[in-house]
Amino acid sequence: MKAQPKASQAVRQIAQVDRDGATFFHRANLLAADPRVKFIFGRAAEEFENARKVLAPLAKGKGKARVPSFFPFEEYDKIECYVCGHVADADDLPEACPGCGAARYAFEREVSQGRAWELVMQTTKDVLAFSRKVGAAVGDAKAKEALAKAAGIRKGLLGEAKEERARAEGATPRGGP
Ligand SMILES: [Zn+2]
What's the 30 CA to ligand 1 centre distance in angstroms? Predict the structure, then answer.
């Protein structure tokens, strides 16, 4: 019997979004200046990778599945030296700025913990909604089971992000800088 093309296509698309998530948060992790923010982005990269791994065996097919973009890649693609404004490629970050010689940290990002968790929260929510919508067409029991498992991983991440964001907000004095 022929495999259901619709089901495998849906799983491939969802796995692709999880892959995008892992790629995006890995990059954000590399660029974050604050080690606590690095940790947050690292957690998200890890969990999107875990979700992707669950789906990978069922997401067979050639090429990259076409999926909507849920992650602000454009914000992290080109990064600017804050000393001289030299623009570098995030995937090929220089050890020192070719424009002014500033150390690598001149390219790093200042992101607050609250903002980092918020980014994790929002993107995870969007991916969960996409997975629910696209996965609804899947009838195959094995694929459904994998989709539910991947969704469980993302829900865990979402719960963690909500809790941690509330904590980060509580730690910031209102009306402060
Ligand atoms: Zn520079």
Answer: 18
* 77 located within any domain: no
CA torsion 119-120-125-127 (nearest 10°) is: 100
Question: What pTM was computed for the model?
Answer: 0.87
pLDDT at position 165: 94
What is the Rg, in whole angstroms, of the alpha carbon atoms belonging to the chain?
18
Query: If you measure from the C-alpha of residue 77 to the centroid of ligand 1, how many angstroms do you get, rounded to a whole number?
Result: 17
Query: Does position 117 have pLDDT exceeding 60, yes or no?
Result: yes
Mean pLDDT of all residues belonging to the chain: 90
Residue 104, in any domain of the structure: no
Asked whether residue 78 is assigned to any structural domain, the reply reads no
**What is the extent of the structural domain holding 23?**
7-71+112-168
